[in-house]
């Protein structure tokens, strides 16, 4: 198993797919990295040489914000909104949808499991 940015990436997958296991690298960034280093798109991680793995690791460290740094930055952005007590910060604090979705029905992912209310029957 190759270890890049603190993540064990699977060895039997293609390089473009395996790089997406790293938080902060999606399909387009993975393709960009592979193209920049001149690695064939059909190559698998197990077929990479140690030198190529090292090049991938250095490229990601130098030019991309991934894993811990990215998670920390996202958490700090949310904390900043909550400290400002702006509308988005209040929605984060209450655990409600932030981007204008309806909450009368749905929104179960943010609100959690439905809680029964006693005496609600009509």
Automatic annotation (TrEMBL):
Residues 95-122 are annotated as: Disordered. Located at the top of the head of the 30S subunit, it contacts several helices of the 16S rRNA. In the 70S ribosome it contacts the 23S rRNA (bridge B1a) and protein L5 of the 50S subunit (bridge B1b), connecting the 2 subunits; these bridges are implicated in subunit movement. Contacts the tRNAs in the A and P-sites. This is Small ribosomal subunit protein uS13. Part of the 30S ribosomal subunit. Forms a loose heterodimer with protein S19. Forms two bridges to the 50S subunit in the 70S ribosome. InterPro entries: Rbsml_uS13_C (IPR027437), Ribosomal_uS13 (IPR001892), Ribosomal_uS13-like_H2TH (IPR010979), Ribosomal_uS13_bac-type (IPR019980), Ribosomal_uS13_CS (IPR018269). Belongs to the universal ribosomal protein uS13 family. Gene3D superfamilies: 1.10.8.50, 30s ribosomal protein s13, domain 2 (4.10.910.10). GO terms for cellular component: ribosome. Keywords: Ribonucleoprotein, Ribosomal protein, RNA-binding, rRNA-binding, tRNA-binding.
